[in-house]
């Protein structure tokens, strides 16, 4: 009898996932579709989470772009806030000075920050010179001179050094010996080739206005070299030493250098040529070009920010958000836009009742709500009324006492006006400073009056050198200073509204990614479980079909 072999139950354990498709399945059932349907049902939640993560990442990118554009505005106006470094700014353009010189071929000038402005009349009568003397000519710079002995050498601002010579020393050897001590003596030596058969040693003072002096050691070396005559006086003086002579507003000033930094406080003059009896005007003033450049940079930076905002508010033809409007209807963006617009609308009233605003600088909004700058208007107010520009843009403190000064100001208050009642003890030290009888609002340390933490005066440090009494103090915060504060609250790298929002989104994404990964891991485990389960069903079905086939074949054989 013919027999038919059969598979064993181990088939179920080895049946793979590929055998569960309808084309390979013995039963004709497509188990793979069943598995995918069940697994995808579980993965759907992970897909929704991933979609949320993608949306959050897009929002983080948009918030970061907004942060960058706001900080660019902040950087542009930082120097316009009339704050020193101690009061929170990287620079104060209103304190920067420049000098306008009528003829910069004669002299130039650099000016320290916060120097008093003014106009001066300068006459450069004479330049300071370096003393220059020469030895007699010799036929060779490398042949032995034949002189033996020593001499001392120094400039007026140097120290005497001793130069020793042997008979076999050449002019080059002598030059090198002098230059080995030039930093001490203040004298430098060089060799000039006068002709094919003549070389001269030249001695030059290192600095202007300094006379070279020499003393022979007793062997007559100096006179043999031709540096001195028989009487010991300089024999060949090429350039006589002289000091610089300058007249400033009719006052004659004599200095040994052509760089003069102590004639006008805060001003350094560099002299280039003498122009006797020719008065040259020099004006020390605020560096208007730097202020104009900063204002122009602010307009450009604001318009970059404004273009970003417009993109985030754009809609399609059917009124829905455009594809680029990641922050469409975003509450934080709306809040920032309102705060920035409010700061831009800041106005200041001067003592004479003049109202200053952004328009005073020639800045206005166009039809797209971008800023436009009229340079003629800006140039006019910068040249005619720089104090009004400073008052409009910056932080300003006025005090009824000239002995009260501001050291630090970090308060966010837009305006403060108060009267300080100051008491100085018998020993001369400050003992208290109070407002309205409340001495807890300020503490004193030396000559410093410090606003107490948690009060309206927190962050204010004043310096007072006067006597006991009352001092009226007024702070006003101009447009640039107020806008800087608004932007800092919104976009500073740490602790701002945008920084917090970005941190929150990143934290949320980390949590969502963990949840998504967990769901995907469990779904893959579920896939493996289902695959094994259906594989066992398929193996059992195949074995049952084989057994049925075997039984049917047996019955057929018996009938025959």
From TrEMBL:
Keywords: Bacterial flagellum, Cell projection, Cilium, Coiled coil, Flagellum, Secreted. The keyword Coiled coil applies. Residues 27-131 form the Flagellar hook-associated protein 2 N-terminal domain. It is found in: Secreted; Bacterial flagellum. The keyword Coiled coil applies. Residues 242-543 form the Flagellar hook-associated protein 2 C-terminal domain. Pfam families: Flagellin_IN, FliD_C, FliD_N. PANTHER family: FLAGELLAR CAP/ASSEMBLY PROTEIN FLID, FLAGELLAR HOOK-ASSOCIATED PROTEIN 2. Belongs to the FliD family. Homopentamer. Required for morphogenesis and for the elongation of the flagellar filament by facilitating polymerization of the flagellin monomers at the tip of growing filament. Forms a capping structure, which prevents flagellin subunits (transported through the central channel of the flagellum) from leaking out without polymerization at the distal end. This is Flagellar hook-associated protein 2. It comes from Azospirillum palustre.
